[in-house]
From TrEMBL:
<keyword id="KW-1133">Transmembrane helix</keyword>
<feature type="domain" description="DUF7726">
    <location>
        <begin position="599"/>
        <end position="681"/>
    </location>
</feature>
<protein>
    <recommendedName>
        <fullName>DUF7726 domain-containing protein</fullName>
    </recommendedName>
</protein>
<feature type="region of interest" description="Disordered">
    <location>
        <begin position="528"/>
        <end position="553"/>
    </location>
</feature>
<dbReference type="InterPro" id="IPR056143">
    <property type="entry name" value="DUF7726"/>
</dbReference>
<dbReference type="Pfam" id="PF24852">
    <property type="entry name" value="DUF7726"/>
</dbReference>
<keyword id="KW-0472">Membrane</keyword>
<feature type="transmembrane region" description="Helical">
    <location>
        <begin position="30"/>
        <end position="55"/>
    </location>
</feature>
<feature type="transmembrane region" description="Helical">
    <location>
        <begin position="104"/>
        <end position="128"/>
    </location>
</feature>
<keyword id="KW-0812">Transmembrane</keyword>
């Protein structure tokens, strides 16, 4: 749960005079309100004393006086309060009213009216003292406690990768639940949102261009795609990054989808009892030449409902290789948008009526009657939806915007090239938004949710029976995906400041800045000037001014303003990559004894500890590490490769000698020994003791994990390259 910061801060949603806002805990807020009431009472008494003095001074300046004026002077001089003065003045008026006196009423009013105004004014002020306090059940903006703000990341180990995947999936599920409660549900939800805006505004149209270059593949036509587009989302008003107008940025994202036909890209393989369909929309990594495969056996009385498989391609991504990611064919590849394709299988699903939706098509051609029920089977084994994610950032100070593009080009233009001339604070804000967008795309949303990404999945009875669906069900699903993306980016930006991410030991947070949010009921109270406009829009999640740069946040010193390389930018990633390659390069260490393998003088646990530390370094990825450790041990001309599965098997073992026969143990030891020599580090004391006890090195041929002693031998028969140590 997010923590609310207490203290004085400036809410830039208000004019500068009203911007100072004091946030207190509820208990401290009650004391503050009580203190204000007492202060108003004391101020009222003091103000009347000043007023009485001025009235008395004014009456002493009169050139002509009478008994009434003298009595008024005495009353003012001895006044103990405004109300008491009114009573005394009225008594004088009553006493002289039966005798004709000129200007008696006027003389009475010159004292009674000021006294009445002071008494009434401060009485009303005392009653409305609580108006300066907004409790959390109202439209309140609170500041998140900026204790641990920053970007989260996981190490490159197998466990770290699994933990990162689990976090992304969990974040998507939470965003989907939020979308179901606040975006899709028209009735008010019992839960209270914490975001500054409960929902982000967007519009939809059913006449958008086809999202892929091959427009003839769009089933409904080249201009009948469905598009959801957000409004220009201000970083302050919509996302809660509290900043003056000059330091704000705006984001707009859109999602365009359409059912597509790809029958000519499919190959059918007939089996004895079923058939398998391969779809060739572009290879996925180096696993196979096809994109997706489906076996019709899943539709043969299995009781299965919907299943979904999604593939996503980031446009112009230079990190995409032949071994990673989906590489779409030209018909589906775009340079100005991120493309995703979604293969839906309705498997053994039955509908209680015909469905004329182009993606969920079950028009009644395939039907039968069961127990008096007319059931309709889906028309196709597989139906495909193609989607395009597009983004753009704007500078509200100059009214300039980037071209709509995928997330990689957006990062390049807005951060690396800074085509919008963002200032330092705007760059920091834009970086937060771009990092949040990295995990906000349709492909990741659908693949994380699986069948739960379909609202239609919620209608299933017994897992594979569904009522008839409307003709625009596919558009309803697209809107749901877009709403989930909006909710996820809201959560991601808030999480930056709240440190609400549940990170296990494999995850870390780089400290940066702070954020505003909507206070949870009973957690905080705000003291501020009473609002002058009762129609003011509701606010909920904003932030204190962010630190000017990552350097300022990390060191506390003023940042150099010559050039800024935002975290996550192409230049930053390239710098990390270069540093990692340099770190892993130990080729400068000469092999002095190439005919013999190296003796091993460190335990398996020590090698595992060094491996974890290396993989946790920024820029070091598992693939590069495996390649780097193989070469020093086996030689440059060796074709042996260390597989990721071998690394995982070795790393999960525990014990000083557990895994001593693993190839990973030997090659990693050789690598780290060369790295020690390269860095000029001396041997550890434990290492010297091991050399004395086992002069021939540990046995890496015979399993020693369960032995009570260590046998020190050289393995002459082990292939590879060795060297002597300094």
């Amino acid at each position: 749960m997010v923590q609310i910061a207490t203290g004085l801060w400036f809410d830039y949603s208000k004019p500068s005079v009203l911007a100072p806002t004091l946030t207190l805990s509820v208990s401290a807020g009650y004391l503050a309100v009580s203190g204000l009431t007492l202060l108003v009472t004391l101020a009222g008494a003091s103000f009347w004393n000043i007023t009485a003095f001025l009235l008395h001074h004014w009456k002493t300046k009169e050139t002509t006086t009478n008994v009434i004026d003298l009595q008024h002077r005495v009353i003012l001089r001895n006044s103990t309060g405004a109300l008491r003065t009114i009573v005394e003045i009225l008594k004088v008026h009553q006493a002289w009213s039966k005798k004709p006196r000129q200007c008696l009423l006027l003389k009475t009013c010159t004292v009674a009216v000021p006294a009445l105004l002071v008494a009434a004014g401060f009485a009303v002020a005392g009653l409305f003292t609580s108006a300066v306090a907004n409790k959390t059940y109202g439209p309140v903006a609170a500041r998140i406690q900026p204790s641990s703000c920053g970007y989260w990341s996981f190490d490159a180990t197998t466990e770290g990768t699994a933990s990162m995947t689990a976090k992304i999936v969990n974040d998507t599920i939470q965003a989907r639940n939020y979308a179901a409660s606040f975006y899709a549900n028209s009735s008010s939800s019992p839960a209270r949102p914490v975001f500054i805006r409960t929902t982000l505004p967007y519009t939809t149209t059913g006449s958008a261009p086809c999202p892929i270059p091959a427009a003839e593949r769009c089933i409904l036509g080249p201009n009948r795609a469905f598009r959801a587009t957000s409004e220009l989302l201000d970083s302050h008003n919509m996302f809660g990054i509290n900043a003056p107008v000059r330091d704000r940025v705006q984001l707009q994202l859109s999602l365009t989808c359409s059912p597509v036909r790809a029958i000519d890209l499919a190959a059918v393989i007939n089996g004895s009892e079923s058939l398998t369909v391969h779809y060739f929309l572009g290879p996925v990594g180096d696993q196979s030449s096809y994109t997706y495969r489906y076996n019709s056996a899943m539709a043969n009385n299995t009781g299965l409902g919907y299943s979904l498989a999604s593939y996503h391609a980031v446009a112009n991504d230079p990190t995409l290789t032949d071994t990673l990611g989906w590489r779409p064919i030209p018909d589906f590849a775009r340079a100005d948008a991120d493309i995703s394709v979604h293969f839906m299988n309705q498997n053994d699903l039955r509908y209680l009526g015909p469905v004329y939706d182009p993606w969920f098509s079950a028009d009644g051609t395939l039907n039968y009657t069961f127990n008096g029920l007319f059931l309709t089977r889906p028309d196709y084994l597989v139906t495909i939806m193609a989607c395009a994610d597009e983004y753009r950032l704007c500078n509200p100070s100059t009214s300039q915007c980037t071209q709509t593009a995928g997330v990689w080009a957006l990062t390049e233009n807005a951060l690396t090239k800074n085509v919008l001339n963002f200032n330092v604070d705007q760059l920091a804000t834009a970086a937060r938004i771009v990092v949040a967008l990295a995990d906000v795309n349709t492909g990741m949303t659908v693949s994380s949710l699986g069948p739960a990404a379909l609202w239609a999945n919620n209608k299933l009875i017994r897992g594979n029976i569904s009522p008839a669906l409307p003709d625009n069900q596919w558009q309803i699903e697209v809107v749901g995906w877009f709403q989930t993306e909006l909710a996820k980016i809201q959560a991601s930006i808030t999480e930056f400041a709240s440190n609400a991410a549940e990170l296990n030991p494999y995850g870390t947070i780089s400290l940066q800045g702070a954020q505003r949010l909507r206070a949870v009921e009973g957690s905080a109270m705000h003291l501020e000037a009473p609002p002058t406009n009762t129609n003011r829009k509701r606010k909920s999640t904003e932030a204190v001014p962010a630190t000017n740069s990552v350097e300022e946040a990390a060191t506390g010193k003023p940042a150099k303003r010559l050039k800024i390389i935002p975290t996550g930018s192409k230049e930053a990633k390239a710098a990390l990559k270069t540093a990692a390659i340099s770190l892993l390069d130990v080729s400068s260490i000469v092999n002095l004894n190439p005919d013999e393998p190296a003796p091993v003088y460190e335990t398996c646990d020590t090698v595992r500890r060094k491996t974890r530390a290396m993989l946790a370094k920024n820029g070091v990825i598992q693939v590069d590490f495996l390649r780097a450790i193989a070469t020093p041990a086996y030689g440059d001309n060796n074709t042996n490769k260390i597989q990721a599965s071998s690394l995982y098997s070795f790393m999960k073992q525990k014990g000083r000698l557990a895994g001593n026969t693993s190839d990973v143990y030997y090659v990693a030891y050789v690598f780290f020994e060369k790295l020690r020599i390269k860095q000029g580090k001396s041997k550890l004391k434990d290492r010297e003791i091991m050399e004395e006890i086992y002069p021939g090195g540990l046995d890496i041929k015979v399993q020693l994990g369960k032995s009570s002693h260590v046998v020190g031998v050289h393995l002459k028969e082990r292939p590879g390259v060795a060297y002597t140590y300094s």
